Amino acid sequence: MLEVFRIYTDSPLRNFTYLVREPNSKKTLSIDPYDPDQISKVLENKSWNLDYILNTHEHNDHTCGNDGLVSKYGAKVLAHPAGLGKIPHASHPLEEGEKILESPDGNSYLKVIYTPGHTFAHICLLQIENGSAYAVFTGDTIFNSGVGNCTRGGDPKTLYDTVVQKFKELPGNVRLYPGHDYLKNNLKFSLSIDPKNEATSLALSKAEKLKENQEFWTTTFSEERTFNPFFLVFDPKENLVSGIRNKMQNLSLTSDPQTLFIALRSLRDKW
């Protein structure tokens, strides 16, 4: 089974970096490295080398660790084909469906999925264990109780299509590894839209009991589907629809999932 280590960086954007290691080959990958010194300390403490860097997309807070890590470890930088020339040191364009860190028996690997929306050079990684989806590294596509914005080179309709095609039907036990810790803020936004959602209230209560900047809740997609409004739009309850209509000041807004999703993204941009 692949080993996953999450690094929280106390940056203004609350970034997560992930280290993923295949225990047989001892090959190690850094996903969206932020602070090269912080990452190097973890690698040294674990006696791990760094073979690969993967940037989910081209935004600086997901690539700013590349220079330091490439300089120190000579790691190969993997990215979406459209990220080459935009991402520092990116040299290997990834194909959709490509396998990374595959174990010798083929039972464990990371599968590349193209996920445009936040940007058009965005990829996510699906962790496969024994033939089944186990976790997904989502960069800035899916967050806890949220999705990425589309204001820096993206498009909300494209993001909606990506969520429908790549995430809507994922098994409920799949773990979510997002690119940022926005959990509490996103839950507060969700409650501002739909204050009667008990699952959201319970989730916020749980999140607020975690040690600040030390403990993080790794949610599953079954949990997200009870309080993430961008998933709730697929089976919209009247409270959610009314909340969106009131916030948009548009009482004629339809309950079509795509319409609600795009309206929510617009509201979150301003919140």
From TrEMBL:
The keyword Amino-acid biosynthesis does not apply. InterPro entries: Clx_II_MBL (IPR035680), Glyoxalase_II_hydrolase (IPR050110), HAGH_C (IPR032282), Metallo-B-lactamas (IPR001279), RibonucZ/Hydroxyglut_hydro (IPR036866). Its EC number is 3.1.2.6. Residues 14-180 form the Metallo-beta-lactamase domain. Keywords: Hydrolase, Metal-binding, Zinc. GO terms for molecular function: hydroxyacylglutathione hydrolase activity; metal ion binding. The keyword Metal-binding applies. Pathway: Secondary metabolite metabolism; methylglyoxal degradation; (R)-lactate from methylglyoxal: step 2/2. Pfam families: HAGH_C (PF16123), Lactamase_B (PF00753). It is an enzyme of class 3 (hydrolase). Its cofactor is Zn(2+). Belongs to the metallo-beta-lactamase superfamily. Glyoxalase II family. This is hydroxyacylglutathione hydrolase.
